Amino acid sequence: MLTLKSVQAGYGRLMVLKGISLHVRQGEVVTLIGGNGAGKSTTLGAISGLLSVWRGQVEFDGRDLSRVPAEKVVALGLALVPEGRRVFATLSVRTNLELGGFHRRDAREVRRDLDDLQERFPILKERAHQPAGTLSGGEQQILAICRALMSRPQLLMLDEPSMGLSPRNVQLVYDILRELKERGTTLLLVEQNARAALKLADRGYVIETGRIILDGTASELQEAPEVQRAYLGKGYREVWE
Amino acid sequence: MAAYILHLAILAGIYVILALSLNLIVGYAGQVSLGHAAFYGIGAYISTLTALNWHFPYLLAALAAMVFAGLCGLALGLPTLRLKEDYLAIVTLGFGVIIDLVMRNLELTGGPDGIVGIPSPVILGFSFRQPIPYFLLVCLGVAFTLLFTYLLVSSYHGRALRAIRDHETTAQVMGINSPAYKVAVFALAAALAGLAGSLFAHYIKHINYESFGLHSSILILCMVVLGGMGSILGSVVGAIILTVLPETLRQFHAYQDLIYGGLLVALLVLRPQGLLGKGKLSLKFMIKKE
């Protein structure tokens, strides 16, 4: 459903993605793991139109996305939960949710989705009229995910949903993602938290300095020595040991 | 004395329109503008020139002022789309300076002397030459602006504007065409400032560049910030206070400006969000986030 073919992209003259190829099939949960500065967020930026694609192709449902501006992408069925949650801090929780369905014209359906989400996550109802900035980190992440769901995406992209959250909240967020997976939502999950991501995902890619260095099923990746050493901390040795 | 109070009330009303319009840009869309008085001036001159040279009836002249100022807002908005914060501040500041120089040097605008003998508005045969009718006319303008800004900010589009203010990139990801919204809000705010300019010109009857310079731009911005960015009522209160305050401080003679400045600083230290502001809004180009 989503295919990237040798995508190059970057900022100014600095090339960050040096030819990324990956694909996500319908109903799959795919994770992209890598350290700081590896190009994870840049990849999502290139897909969602926030960054221009220098070379290569981004295809979604047979459509070329590389020239589609960011604000048109969501209408095609791709939603992004941005890094660091980025809820609209001064707007109410409810308005945040409504903005998630901004491109939809069917007011009644939007309303129904909003009610559904509020029912599933009662905190969104309790705090409906409170500025989103006053929610806790975990609550903001839930809101950010629900806001993205309001667009009824075919593919949901999440940029480090566990970043800056307490272990309990990471658990909470991953429970939601698991539930989405069980409902058949297609997810592209970008993470530094390889352990959590690989537990949930079907397949994964490891990105390092703008290149995919490894890919495979989640269990293959969990076993791969490179991943264990770099991201899961097994058999890790300091240089002086 | 009553005439003087009425005079202040008319000026306050004009400033309320200006503050409300700038609040759309600064408080709701979260963009900076240090050149708002330029649109005010453009409106004043266009209204005057169409009324004097082409004998436009008042309503048509005011409409022409709004349309032309709006087009200038569009012309400023389009090339500056991609700019943010400090850069946008500098460009709007530059725009204000350019318009100031144009008004000062153009033959059409009467050069530094400006234009005298601007006619009083006549609508449907009724002349607004006396202060009381004029005050009512300004009230009408204020009511129109209030209604317009209220409807705008509480609409679907108002939500989009506030989303852009809170986080532009995320707003774009939600499907909000932020460049289009920013240009539109610049143009609309400019048109409203044009209306204020028209009301000012036909009241004061003698305009020159002095009323529309950087000083006025900053004053309008102060009204918005003092009242509370992103609050409609705040802009109204801010505009009234900053119109009336300097006058009431006149009794302190030489210390007038000192007390005025001191009060402003004190107010903003005690209430950084402005008198009626709610959230933690701040002028983005002054405080860097992240």
Give a quick precis of the structure.
The complex is a heterodimer of chains A (241) and B (290). Chain A has 241 residues and is α/β, with parallel strands linked by helices.
Task: Describe the protein's architecture and organization.
The complex is a heterodimer of chains A (241) and B (290). Chain A is an alpha/beta fold. Chain A has a single domain, classed as P-loop containing nucleotide triphosphate hydrolases (Rossmann fold, 3-Layer(aba) Sandwich). Helices cover 37% and strands 27% of the residues of chain A. Chain A has 10 helices and 10 strands. In chain A, a hairpin with a 2-residue loop joins strand 4 and strand 5. Chain A is globular. Chain A starts with a strand and ends in a 9-residue tail after the last helix. The relative contact order of chain A is 0.18. Chain B is mainly alpha-helical and 290 residues long. In chain B, the strands form 2 sheets. In chain B, strands 1-4 form a two-stranded antiparallel ribbon. In chain B, strands 2-3 form a two-stranded antiparallel ribbon. In chain B, helix 1 runs parallel beside helix 5. Chain B starts with a helix and ends in a 20-residue tail after the last helix. Chains A and B meet through helix 2 and helix 3 of A and helix 6 and helix 7 of B.
Please outline the helices and strands.
The complex is a heterodimer of chains A (241) and B (290).
Chain A: E1 2-11, E2 14-24, E3 29-33, H1 40-48, E4 53-60, E5 63-64, H2 70-73, E6 78-81, H3 93-100, H4 107-120, H5 122-126, H6 137-149, E7 155-159, H7 167-182, E8 186-191, H8 194-200, E9 203-208, E10 211-217, H9 218-223, H10 225-232
Parallel strand pairs in A: 3-8, 3-9, 6-7, 7-8
Antiparallel strand pairs in A: 1-2, 1-4, 4-5, 9-10
Chain B: H1 2-28, H2 36-53, H3 58-80, H4 85-105, E1 115-116, E2 122-123, E3 126-127, H5 131-153, H6 156-166, H7 168-173, H8 178-204, E4 206-207, H9 214-227, H10 232-248, H11 256-270
Antiparallel strand pairs in B: 1-4, 2-3
Helix pairs in contact in B: 1-5, 1-8, 1-9, 1-10, 2-3, 2-4, 2-8, 3-8, 5-8, 9-10
